[in-house]
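Title: Prediction job returns without error message
Component: structure pipeline
Severity: low
Priority: P3
Assignee: unassigned

Description:
Job completed but the reporter wants confirmation the result is attached to the right record. Sequence as submitted:
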Amino acid sequence: MIIPIPVRKNGGRCESLKANAAKLAQRKIAAIALAMGAARTDRHNFGGINLCYAACLHMNDRSYMSNSTAPHPLAMEFHNLSVEVKDHIGYLTLTKSEQNSFDAKFLAEIVAAHDALESDEEVWGVIWASASDTFFSSGLDANYMLSLDRSEKLDMFRQLFETTRRVFAFSKPELALLPGHAFAAGSVLAMAADWRFMAEGKARVSFPEVMLGISMPEAMIAMLRTHVGEHQLATLIGTGDSFKAEDCLRLGVVNALFPREELLSQGEKFMRRLFQKPL
């Protein structure tokens, strides 16, 4: 779990923040890299497709760290999401469509937005939301994936793993707000954030890989384990079921449930409370 950002009484940030954030990010990557096991770092199977998954999650690869030359998030042009900074909170909102399904450009924008928000000293924490009332994300765009040849599909899976790693290694507190459904890759990316608040009602979360004959890579399983614990993993990823909001709270998939209209205000209240806590 990310440790909240400290603040001085005069509102300035502690000088040690960068160093501590870097250590926290390295710890996250080391945890999942170690969980993979050295003997497995060059052979992971994703639905019968051999992928060098360790290349995306290797603990010695520090490309996930903040890029000091990244442009200011408000100066960047995005087509599938929006970024706003207000009162030290960075707002990353998925705006592509009702289902917010991912293609290569969408994933690239998610990584670029995290790079920019991490490098912005005025951003102390991030709220990741969706402009859709019915979906956070439905996962990979099925029509887009069908249009790709085998080599391009491999590249897309690698990009998904890299995006997951980037979000999971983000060195500032990040809260994902789920106003609606999160399926497959959408669920995985939401789980890469530090906390999740979900709307009460009919929304569902699912990890349907087993229904598609796909084995979830061990590093992703290790990431999920950090949130839900070992005893809930089989239920979460071994059944292919979709889980109601109440079940998600019980399983540890989300941290709190609120009426949809209160999600953002509750998220902001939570983030501001974090800003007041010491390391």
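Comment from assignee: result matches the submitted record. The mean pLDDT is 79.
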